[in-house]
Amino acid sequence: MFRFTLDLPDETATAALAARLAVLLQPGDIVLLAGDLGAGKSFLARALIRAAAGEPELEVPSPTFTLVQSYDLPAGPLWHFDLYRLAAPEEVLELGWDEARLGICLVEWPDRLDGLTPADRLKVELA
């Protein structure tokens, strides 16, 4: 596994990383966003979705309570999962996981996937 560390000292730097990732994503890509509460997972996801949509003011609600939000973007459908409240990994299947994997997936709290974690993915750990 290839690993590297980036210093993202503020939201501007985090948004810049999100914008760079956004132009690279295509259907089938899975981005796992890991980190403690308040680490910036939702901020990074929101910035990435806005950049991918080409709409800096796009309303991007957190899927904390709905568990998943989907977006029709120029690069294809994007599914944003927040798995914090999942009781069991299998519950992600009820949220449309198999269909979502045909598009672009952003997953907050990917540890909740357990054995369902895809082998091919980009994992971003925020601290």
From TrEMBL:
Organism: Inquilinus limosus MP06
Intracellular or extracellular location(s): Cytoplasm
Taxonomic superkingdom: Bacteria
Keyword Metal-binding carried by entry: yes
The UniProt record lists the keyword Mitochondrion: no
Gene Ontology annotations for the cellular component aspect, listed alphabetically: cytoplasm
A Gene Ontology biological process term: tRNA threonylcarbamoyladenosine modification
Residue stretches spanning the membrane: none
Protein name: tRNA threonylcarbamoyladenosine biosynthesis protein TsaE
Keyword line: ATP-binding, Cytoplasm, Magnesium, Metal-binding, Nucleotide-binding, tRNA processing
InterPro entries, per the entry: P-loop_NTPase, T6A_TsaE
SUPFAM superfamilies hit by this protein: P-loop containing nucleoside triphosphate hydrolases
GO molecular function: ATP binding; metal ion binding
Family in the record: Belongs to the TsaE family.
